[in-house]
Amino acid sequence: MTTENLQITLAARPRGLPVDTDWARVTAPVREPDDGEVVVEVIYLSLDPAMRGWMNDIRSYIPPVKLGEVFRAAGVGRVIEGRSPDLSAGDLVYGIVGMQRYATMKASALERLPADAGVSLPDYLGVLGLPGLTAYFGLFDVGAAQPGDTVLVSAASGAVGSVVGQLAKIHGCRAVGSAGGPDKCRHLTEVLGFDAAIDYKSGDSLTRAIGAACRDGVNVYFDNVGGPMLEAALRHLARGARVVICGAIHHYNETSAPRGPAGYLSLLVHRARMEGFVVFDYADRYAEARAKLAGWLAEGRLKSQVTIAEGLENAPQALLRLFSGDKLGKLVVRVADDPAA
Amino acid sequence: MTTENLQITLAARPRGLPVDTDWARVTAPVREPDDGEVVVEVIYLSLDPAMRGWMNDIRSYIPPVKLGEVFRAAGVGRVIEGRSPDLSAGDLVYGIVGMQRYATMKASALERLPADAGVSLPDYLGVLGLPGLTAYFGLFDVGAAQPGDTVLVSAASGAVGSVVGQLAKIHGCRAVGSAGGPDKCRHLTEVLGFDAAIDYKSGDSLTRAIGAACRDGVNVYFDNVGGPMLEAALRHLARGARVVICGAIHHYNETSAPRGPAGYLSLLVHRARMEGFVVFDYADRYAEARAKLAGWLAEGRLKSQVTIAEGLENAPQALLRLFSGDKLGKLVVRVADDPAA
């Protein structure tokens, strides 16, 4: 096999928002597979806010990406050749394939996707992928959402938030989401079935807006952003509320230490808790959650929204759309033609 | 009954540290008891950090004290007359008697103390009172401390913290406490049996000191102070840690909005939670906890430390000792002679 590979590697560690020179585009021959390995042609790559953290030289729940290394990314693709009895050419697979056109990797690190499940490939990176699983375990396990609860979620038009709100509705909760701009807010209430939406870009007081949308207080606040939205949500906790710390995109490009939530003593007044989690800890229950998510998706009770950016070479620019908010739902990069699309 | 009463009322709402003119000393005849009421001669009053919050015009978990009102305070005393079949003259009682020499109040709002339980009266305000109960439920229920855990507690030489550390040891945990100055730190390790003490006034880095004392990370951080200590503790959480928010004395006299804990995302990295609580929610389990605390006290496994300030009229000044740290263990005011002392 002599096909040329295109790889996106980390060239420099950014301060603040990443710039194009923080990345390098490298061409190299596709590495031949060893025993037990296969070559995957990548079709879609997932772009996730957590990637910004992996660019820093700080160990979080997983190590940072090293300088010069192909950037870590989840993706779906097709096996094109291999030396493993477990996967055959043509198999569709999911795995941490990295930002590259072809990934030569162990078959055991890949998950074979069902051939005709009626699921579009990007959904394996969104509703049925880590964002959907994150929403599921964060809302039900960490947030312990109960029917009748008011669930507030930030970045509600994003990959995780949009699923959180819809799962809340399926579970019999009231769902309130925050998003940037009237179009996204309309999407929440008119397409995804949220009970109310808060436009954080409107210039209105977030505290007043949350108070108006959550008159009995917030039972579960699912936080993807941190910053002023977390601060405002803490002012409206119901007794015994659960604040689920899933992410903090507001802070990821900050160059100085973040301000913490000054209202944290609200946890005491309202006997509430704030809890962080990492979806990887739930790996032994992914199958259970995926089966439920897939069922709701098939029934039409869970809607998928995907924004597709074109071309591997544009992945670094596309990543910035997570921070500008210029996308809806799950953001993926199309690297090769989708056989089903 | 014509005895004159001395009462301490709230005269003004302080900004920052209270000053003497925020209080008034009022004399008035002792009110005659109605049916169902008794007159209590107060012997000891409890001084608690939460009192500072009650001076602000902000509803927290209980309403603030009104201007002109006798200041709310728990105390122990002796019934001197009454019109209730439930209490007789000479009975020792506990209740929210207020900052005054004589409290005329409903017998049903008082708890009769056992006559010869071998417990000193101030202990009903400390180890066996709300501070001890707060330590018990905060450590075991909210903090879910397990044998083998490292338990870090701030204000560890205080009424609550000193019990938290001792209960941690009784439960088979490693106990580390922070306190101000070498004498208090020695008290923790040499008298109360803590495994290590951190002197927050030493000028050393709190973060380094916690790291050195808690090499495997902190499983339970019981926080009474907030501020830099909370910030530093968040940097050393073990996987799945519990941060118990009991109080925040660092912030109680602040005149501007507090800085929140910038390191709160450590909750995500370490799958940890931060949870607030109010001891009053455990009222139906006080008897269970008191029986255990009294047992450990009788066995000598739990040591009581009380600082006594003399004279009701000095209560406002004595309250400031909670913020300057000029006391050890539980701070009480002696209002009348203790029959047992």
Describe this structure in words.
2 copies of one chain form a homodimer. The model of chain A has no long low-confidence stretch (mean pLDDT 95). Chain A is α/β, with parallel strands linked by helices. In chain A, strands 3, 4, 5, 6, 7, 14 and 15 form a 7-stranded mixed sheet that branches. In chain A, strands 10-9-8-11-12-13 form a 6-stranded parallel sheet, sandwiched between helices. In chain A, α2 packs across α3, α2 crosses α8 (286-299) and α5 (206-213) packs across α6 (227-234). In chain A, α7 links the parallel β12 and β13. Chain A has helices at residues 50-54, 130-142, 159-170, 182-191, 206-213, 227-234, 266-269, 286-299, 315-319, 321-324, and strands at residues 4-10, 23-29, 37-46, 75-82, 92-95, 102-106, 111-112, 150-153, 174-179, 196-199, 218-223, 237-245, 273-276, 306-310, 330-334. The first copy, chain A, is 24% helix and 25% strand. Chain A has 2 domains: 4-122 and 305-334, Medium-chain alcohol dehydrogenases, catalytic domain (Quinone Oxidoreductase, Chain A, domain 1); 130-280, NAD(P)-binding Rossmann-like Domain (Rossmann fold, 3-Layer(aba) Sandwich), CATH 3.40.50. At the A-B interface, α7 and β13 of A face α7 and β13 of B.
